[in-house]
Amino acid sequence: MKTTLLVDTESLAIKDVHFTTKKAYDGHIGLQVFRRNAGDLRELLADKMYSWKELREKCRKEATRPVIKHCEQSSLQKAHNARIDDDLYNQRSMSETVFSMLKADDGENLHTRTWHGQFRELTRKCIIHNLSRAVG
């Protein structure tokens, strides 16, 4: 199951989650997650797997700054990547921290075999993560 999280980098709270069992392009998933949360985002930090022109354009249209590295296929894309603020871009690693926290509870494996069961199990993990962040 492919899981995409939208994480608040300051509080480490999970704001949105997207699950799929299909081999979906990360840019398309990113656009879906962005559309659901566009009003709440000032900046969208993502790695180059989410590098998609339509996602960037939608972010800018909604007054959200896209901080997404380009897949470096041209000198122009390399120049764009060089202009990205590294301190801001590196906050993206906080989402990896949240993934590690979710895996630390029960390990990397899911206990259920069905898609619906895995969906429920991962949803519960996300809810418990947010509750523990709010309490602690």
Task: Break the fold down into its secondary structure elements and pairings.
Blueprint: E1 2-7, E2 14-20, H1 26-37, E3 43-46, H2 53-61, E4 65-68, H3 75-82, H4 86-89, H5 93-106, H6 115-135
Parallel strand pairs: 3-4
Antiparallel strand pairs: 1-2
Description:
This protein is an alpha+beta fold and 136 residues long. Helices cover 50% and strands 15% of the residues. It contains 6 helices and 4 strands; from the N terminus they run ββαβαβαααα. The strands form 2 sheets. The chain has a two-stranded antiparallel ribbon. It has a two-stranded parallel ribbon with strand order 3-4. α1 (26-37) packs parallel to α2 (53-61).
Summarize the structure.
The protein has helices spanning 26-37, 53-61, 75-82, 86-89, 93-106, 115-135; strands at residues 2-7, 14-20, 43-46, 65-68. The chain is of the alpha+beta class and 136 residues long.
